[in-house]
Amino acid sequence: MQNNKLSVRLFGQPIGILELDNKGRLHFNYLSNATMSISLSLPSSEQAFDHKHCHRFFKSLLPQNDNILNSISKILEIEPNNTFDFLRLMGQDCVGALSFHLLCSEIEDKQTSPLKGEIISDKELAHRLGYLCEIPMLVNEEGRRALLPGLQSKVAVCLIDNQIAVPSKGCFSTHILKFPARHAKDLIDNEYFCMRLASRLGLHVCAVEMRKIQKTNTLLIKRYDREICGNIVKHYHQEDFCQALGVLPSRKLEVDGGPGFVHCFSLLQKANIPAIDRNHFMRMIFFNYLIGNTQGHAKNISLLYLSPRYFQLAPFYDISSILDDASNMAMKIGDDFFMKAIKSRNWQILCTQIGYSYPAFKQLAQEMLDVLLESAKIEHKLMEEEGKETDFVDELIKFLKKNIQQVEKMLNFR
Ligand SMILES: Nc1ncnc2c1ncn2[C@@H]1O[C@H](COP(=O)(O)OP(=O)(O)OP(=O)(O)O)[C@@H](O)[C@H]1O
Ligand SMILES: [Mg+2]
Question: Quick one: pLDDT at residue 322?
Answer without folding.
Answer: 96
